[in-house]
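Cross-posting from the chemistry board since nobody answered there.

I work mostly on the small-molecule side, so proteins are not my area. We synthesized zinc ion and want a rough idea of how it might sit in this target. Sequence and SMILES are below. Is it possible to get a predicted 3D structure of the two together?
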Amino acid sequence: MLRRLTPFVLLALWMALLWIGLDWSQRPPATVLPRERDVAYVDYFARYLLPCLPVTSGFDYPVRPPDAKGALIALGFAEENHLGEDWNTALGDKDLGEPVYSIADGWVTLAVDFEGMWGKVVMIAYRLPEKDASQLSVVEAMYAHLDTMTVKGGNFVKRGQPIGTMGNVGGVYKAHLHFELRDQIGRGLGGGFSERQEGWISPTDFISTHRPASTPTASLQAKPAKAPAAQRAKWGFDG
Ligand SMILES: [Zn+2]
């Protein structure tokens, strides 16, 4: 009896397997959602945010704008591998609270108190005209060691708008503005100093060659003063 049933049992099993197999084959493939780390912010910014930003109509200096009259740089760009400029308006901490201004019309990408060695940091993206001689589409400025911040991430800012005040990070330094300019957004905080300066731009050189069209001829040559190396300790710098 059992032996006679065997072919039928095997047939039923084969049909069951076939049915299950067909059923599986009809299921849609599992959808693979992109993981968070697959979304590159720099690409997202270039594609979706940058086209929405105002195009800059020129740059002024971040301290004592438009011409930086009365401002002084204690440690310049590329000096001792410095990735920025250390701006002052008075000796020691006498410039604590000196207003700091946006160098152009832009969009605040970050305004965070990192404490530690950086303190309060504002970063602003500036969209350049398409025919800019620098061949860049955007530059990002970093305003660091601030005592106060008066903008938030996502704010639109105008050239010459106050964004905060010069600080000393709770006494870590003598008050100054550590000011960097980068050739793209998303380079992060960085280390402030590096033997390699690719990606970082000399702020004063860039600003002096990108002044607004309305700038009086006499102001086009304006540049912040430079402190002799021997006097740096009297001013504020990252040392
Ligand atoms: Zn610095």
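Reply from a structural biologist on the board:
Welcome over. Reading the output above for you: Residues 55-234 form a domain with the Glucose Permease (Domain IIA) fold (CATH 2.70.70.10). The pocket of zinc ion is lined by residues 75, 82, 84, 86, 178, 192, 238 (CB under 6 Å). Happy to explain the token format if needed.
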